[in-house]
Amino acid sequence: MRPVLNVVALLGLIAFPPFAFAQDLALKRVMLSSGGLGYFEYEASVDGDATLKLTVSLGQVDDILKSLVVYDDKGGVGGLSLPGREPLAQAFRDLPFDQSSLGSPADLLATLKGTQITVGGAKAMTGRVVSVEEEIATLPNDRGTIKRTRVTLFTDRGLQQFILEDAENLQFADAALRDKIGQALLAIQNNRAKDARTIELSTRGQGKRTVRVAYIVEAPVWKASYRLTLAADPAAPRSALQGWAVIENMSGQDWKDVELTLVSGRPVAFRQALYNAYYVTRPEVPVEVAGRLMPGVDRGGVQVAEDRPKSMPMPAPAPYRAQQERGAAPAMAPPPPPPAPIAVAAEQVEASDAATQVIFKFPRPVTVENGRTLSIPIIDRQVPAQRLALYQADTAPRNPLAAIRLSNDGDSGLPAGVITMYERDRAGYVTYVGDARLSGFPIGETRLLAYALDGKIRIERDVGQCDRPGSG
């Protein structure tokens, strides 16, 4: 007994649609914002018309449809296409079988009863599928039992049966059905990853050129942290400040030799479910149906026309009477009021607002694998630092706080972050002395940072009361 072939082999002569040639886009630039957004820019070298493929996660599709932009200086954009939110459900919607029917040849034949097939092998036959039944057969010499599938066909010679596991091949006679099965299998192949979508971009142009594609999606917020090393001399005017950025690559792809830029700002950002299908609800209007005509019953006598009471109303016209019989049709709702005019902004946002962002662009390419975290320096220089004793009675009533007054005399502002404080002794060794919090630090401003309790200084408070006589 020959083992049953898999479903693809049994289908036989299924024509799959050819794949369109497409080029993959290479990630070149990443810009992360402290506002929780990421800018991703790709490049591809094309010649003439081309189709560019980009695979993204399902959760990013809404943002990509909202923000994707294509830069092709020597050509134009032909369009963008991608599978729907439920691509397999859409693919099987108009097919005579569902996805579960492709689990085995027996399931497929049971679903397609009435379909004409040709069976190849020792028991060849052609006919329409009548039934597909599973049975238990006993092996000779008490070797146990085996499960097999018996298929019944309606042929020119009547009903004939064959064992599906003994068939060498099966072929569907209907070419259109073969195409549908092939399309269904292709849809399963292209949508193995439930949470991924492949976007296809078509470009139109002539000659060789570079096409850039960019979009903005949600990304983890990058964080800044600092290390301030105080000089051994308490009177030293400057101290060493290092700043580090902590970033996470949760984009679903590796960043390999990308140009990385970090932006500290608070942009206005929205989300919109553009990947969902929406429909407009329309009011249902009743169908106008003519009233029934019912002749009167002959009672055996005819009344003289002159004897009719003058007060009796004349019969209503047929259309109006028919309307009375079935009840007046409900009046349609009045049309909705026109939309309110869009309010004009009182002030136009000035381009100088963009200058409030702090931008860190790294000179060398950066590589971060998907799912990994990277900490990279953003600042390393000497800054003005003055040691102070800060007294806050509500925090420490008996001792002042050791504090540092920092001044930003650099070329750019610094984002907020935690500062770890170190102090160098005369021998050059470094000791940890405390932590402090740094708020946003623009150019030219100062910050007072308290990092520890100064136990060397003790404060005695003498609170007294003084009465002064009133004048006049």
Q: Extract low-pLDDT stretches.
A: 1-22, 319-333, 338-354
Number of strands: 23
Gap from first CA to last CA: 125 Å
Label the structural class: mainly beta
* Cα shape: elongated
Q: What's a quick, concise take on this entry?
A:
With 472 residues, the chain is mainly beta.
Label this structure with key terms.
single chain; about 475 residues; mainly beta; SH3 type barrels; 7-stranded mixed beta sheet; disordered N terminus
Question: What does it look like?
Answer:
With 472 residues, the chain is mainly beta. Among the domains are: 89-190, SH3 type barrels; 223-250 and 370-453, no CATH class. 11% of the residues lie in helices and 39% in strands. It contains six helices and 23 strands. The strands form four sheets. Strands 2, 3, 5, 13, 16, 17 and 18 form a seven-stranded mixed beta sheet that branches. A hairpin with a 3-residue loop joins strand 2 (26-33) and strand 3 (37-47). Helix 3 runs antiparallel to helix 5. It is elongated. Mean pLDDT is 81; it is low at 1-22, 319-333 and 338-354.
